[in-house]
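Batch job 17 of 40 flagged for manual review because the log was empty.
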Amino acid sequence: MNASISVPAPADTSLARLDHLSDLSARLLDMARAGGASQAEVSCNEERGLNVNVRMGEVETVESTRDRGIAVTVYFGQRKGSASTADLREDSLQATVDQACAIARYTEDDEAAGLADAEGMAREFPDLDLWHPWEIDADRAVDLALACEAAGRDADARIRNSDGASVGTGESVSVYANSHGFIGRERSTHHSLGCALIAGEGDGMQRDGWYTTGLSGQDLDDPKSVGRRAAERTVARLQPRSVPTGQYPVLYSAEVARSLIGHLLGAVSGGALYRRASFLLDHAGQQIFPEWFSIEELPRLRRGLRSGSFDAEGTATRDSMLVQAGVLERYVLGSYSARKLGLKTTANAGGVHNLKVSTNAGGLDTLLGGMTRGLLVTELMGQGVNPVTGDYSRGAGGFWVENGQLAYPVDNVTVAGNLKDMFRSIEAVGTDVDRRSHIAMGSVLLGRMMVAGGEA
């Protein structure tokens, strides 16, 4: 990060706010018990943020946000009711609890309903280094966004227009508590800076961009370098061609490769499995990737983008393998879906945490150098994935590769296959890991996919 982006220490009130939310949670649990609930859980959170957008050297929007939310869930045996509010007045809090209780009294029993098991609650709460407020005012944020966009627009004469640049900063404090006596407190920050540019004219216009993100303002790349990277990506897309339809190796760049893991997560999530709406039903313990391939979940990674010592139900998190030696080791479950499936929670209520995908190759240039002829995908469009069958068909853009070199940009092509086959045909994962996501992985080379272009 450029030293010109100062990150002064803010006046930190987060611990006092957490104390307040903790007291509020305890009061709400007392109200639920008084209302007859056999079990109850409460989530309280406060969020603050600043977002600015500029375009063509002018300020478009400046938005300061401050939100809070309270959600109460009660159980009467195995009947469940939930209600929420943003009003902290005593009568509103009582009305929220009363509404949740009223709903629970009139719902049907659900054998899977209830809090996560008490013995699984988190007991240790290490500092995961997630709290890095950025005390930046609107004027400074605008200056950074303008500098980012100007660097991109000035980088190449073919940049004729802009979709703008933005700076965002936010912080969140939250408390989850339940009638097992568990109370968990979390605080985190998130900051970003990005730019999107337009090159060319008329029907030949192309758009692309770049962004940087992190838990600390100091983790962000320099605004000018972000703008220049956006410009390089945009002009590289000019004068795209079609490609001959056929089966070719396909290399997913790191920023789009993680979408493949997203499809895996959807297929092994508890909700899809107990509804029998997954192409990976009953696949736990089976090999679905090559033997060298693995995915490890690291929920307590310091300064991880999605770290936490407990999940959304208070269950303690721990490092574990999702895929090992190509074998699907487990599903992704909270307590409800686990009970529906006759299994145990994997501490994934609320989703997965940080994922680390194994590598077996060099960086992007190395992977490109090994391709005789094929497609580098840098953009995916559409939602053409069938979660039940695994059939995959998505619009794509990127670059045609000849003899290990980028030959020309490609647009409006379709890449198609079946996710089961695609997972098995992964030949390499590169070391060019994109750190801007909780899914840390590099570029992915698939041995063969159907590529449909405009040429026969």
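Reviewer: the log was empty due to a logging misconfiguration, but the result itself is present. The chain has a mean pLDDT of 95. Unflagging and moving on to job 18.
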